[in-house]
Amino acid sequence: MCTYITEHVEIAGSGKGANGWFKVSEASVYYDHPVHVPLEHSLNIDFLQPELGPSARVAVELDAASAKRLAEAILSTLSRVPDGLPGS
User: Fold this and answer.
1) Residue extents of the structural domains in the chain
2) Are strands 20-32 and 5-17 parallel, antiparallel or unpaired?
3) 44 DSSP β-pair partners
4) Sign of the CA dihedral 39, 40, 45, 47?
5) At residue 24, does pLDDT exceed 90?
6) Which of 18, 63, 83, 88 is spaced 20 to 30 A from 38 at the CA atom?
7) Whether the Cβ atoms of residue 88 and residue 77 lie closer than 8 Å to each other
8) How far, CA to CA in Å, does 38 sit from each of 10, 24, 30, 60?
9) Mind listing the pLDDT tens digit for each residue in 45-78?
């Protein structure tokens, strides 16, 4: 069953693909059938720079437990960044 659960967010960062580093401006987060990981469903994250075409994409497929641990690790790390640090 396809869930079609998808979130899109504007981001600022960089990703590394087959052709090297490129800027990323969008992320798509969705829970659906994966392409590669051997699961029925996975949390999928695509980091994109649409202006550069399909090769400017970094994709990640995670099982739900791993995705939750990653989200917790990101939030924990960001909560400890000192106030006023450039980029925070």
Assistant:
1) 5-79
2) antiparallel
3) 30, 61
4) positive
5) yes
6) 18
7) no
8) 29, 27, 17, 13
9) 999 999 999 999 999 999 999 999 999 999 999 9
Residue 28, SS3 per DSSP:
strand
Beta-carbon contacts of residue 26 (< 8 Å; ≥ 6 apart): 8, 9, 10, 11, 47, 48, 49, 50
Q: Is the pLDDT of residue 81 over 80?
A: yes
Most distant CA pair in the chain, distance: 46
- The phi, psi pair for 26, rounded to 5°, reads -140, 155
Q: What is the chain's length? A: 88
Q: Measured between alpha carbons, how far is 84 from 40 in angstroms, rounded to an integer?
A: 43
Strand order, beta sheet including 57-62:
5-17, 20-32, 42-48, 57-62
